[in-house]
């Protein structure tokens, strides 16, 4: 598996998201885990909110796998906090962050989180409170590294006024079809063009590259926001024709080409898979080994309907 820079270390360019394992029995979770590990994926993405109730998917993962201490040490466990579905709010207060981390540690049956991400920007954030929580969690050895998700450059700058730990990751929605963070800068300053509208606070990919923050692409195969995958979807016929041709040329499956479109980006992003199907994990992981040409990357971009001014 190709690796990318990740904080002071490296991590696989394809990682396994655990948002959709809520209704899975132990055996399919073990199979999914084994497929990921065999494909070189030792990095698992969680969140406190995944599943029907708080910490449900984290618990399903740990209960199904019953990892030994030695195997726990082999993997990276990342989770997120900051969303409070029961109260319809976001919460980056000291109390909430610390409480959620304690809950995740219990659910994941571990003594430390390798990475903690702040899930979605809290409008009422007080950077000093986040810093106090991070300092305490780091000093107690409960969290090893910190990052964010769905954050704009300015929101990260604001956190950095008080947070002293490096913010090493920003998890952002990105697929060939849902690509405003890449497509907007390409159409910059085009009056009247929808694609020119800034939705990410401006240049989030460039900001992450400048600051050594790894972009993690979530929903890498979804057409839009949980609207279903574009792969094999007749609504994206032109895109799938290009994907299928390239898949045949590289002797891989279409999901590998969709993965390669993200891993080809020089920002050295990670693709956060959401599939619970072991074969799809294997097929997607194969995409990280493919280096699409510049022409192929842009052909996929255009076939997805994005404007190239
Ligand atoms: N930070 C955030 O705000 C945020 C938001 C959402 C998600 N995430 C993270 O990102 C991960 C991925 O998100 P996602 O699940 O929406 O991404 P995804 O990988 O684009 O979508 C996976 C879903 O598509 C289904 N699917 C149907 N046909 C497929 C095909 N041909 N190839 C692949 N999948 C197919 C999968 O079903 P099967 O399971 O049956 O294969 C699964 O339900 C999550 O697990 C989570 O860790 C983060």
Any overview of this molecule?
By secondary structure, the protein is α/β, with parallel strands linked by helices. The chain has one domain (3-304): NADP-dependent oxidoreductase domain (TIM Barrel), CATH 3.20.20. The chain is 40% helix and 17% strand. Helix 1 packs across helix 2, helix 4 runs parallel beside helix 5 (127-139) and helix 9 crosses helix 10. The longest helix is centred in the N-terminal third of the chain and has 15 residues, at 94-108. The relative contact order is 0.14. NADP nicotinamide-adenine-dinucleotide phosphate (NAP) is lined by residues 17-20, 45, 149-150, 171, 218-222, 229, 231, 255, 272-277, 280. Residues 17-20, 45, 149-150, 171, 218-222, 229, 231, 255, 272-277, 280 line the site of NADP nicotinamide-adenine-dinucleotide phosphate. InterPro entries: AKR_Detox_Biosynth, NAD(P)_OxRdtase_dom_sf, NADP_OxRdtase_dom. Keywords: Oxidoreductase. One of its GO terms (cellular component) is cytosol. Its EC number is 1.-.-.-.
